[in-house]
């Protein structure tokens, strides 16, 4: 197998949670371009189907499925729907997440609960639902979307729930990698820095001092750049990697 062939996802089925916009959409695009049949999920079926239609229009195989990662029944139903339509899932990208700012003494308890339930418990639910099936078939690949915020305290916007949830995702990644290596399931994570998306307008002047200038590369990243990293982690190009957390932050955490 040549080097470039190792990056191919031809014949693979990939599931991207929260794949209808932002980072998830960039990853879904990259996986499709690498040859995978891609299932995109969103909280509403319409949002997922619209994103999948964009990939289909480009000649890729794609499916849009409604999925609420905070609901165990929804997770099981969505996974089953994907496998009926596209086949067994070879690659799971746990991307769905939320970020709600607020100081620890000011936010309501439900902000903490909602954030942890989506960002951490959602990864747990999806990983178990798909991982169980991967173990039965003899292997697969899981990529969790963590954050550089698992390693630093972002300034000036306080967001303790988000930081805690992403730190937990990184440790869960390592725990599952250690446990599931016996089933030939590789589990890795990405830790993105500031990425320009609809929900993160870091191109606006008010973000420069805290989000752009401190990074060694003096710029923000794009979902397309994360998509390429996701292909690497999902493919045979990273076949000897599991339990790793790849930081993709333009050098923000170097200082």
TrEMBL record:
Cited InterPro entries: NAD(P)-bd_dom_sf (IPR036291), SDR_fam (IPR002347)
GO annotation terms (biological process): carbohydrate metabolic process
SUPFAM superfamilies: NAD(P)-binding Rossmann-fold domains
GO molecular function annotation: oxidoreductase activity, acting on the CH-OH group of donors, NAD or NADP as acceptor
Pfam families assigned to the protein according to its UniProt record, in alphabetical order: adh_short_C2 (PF13561)
Domain of life the protein comes from: Bacteria
Keyword Oxidoreductase: yes
UniProtKB keywords: Oxidoreductase
Family: Belongs to the short-chain dehydrogenases/reductases (SDR) family.
Protein name per UniProt: Short-chain dehydrogenase
Origin species: Microbacterium keratanolyticum
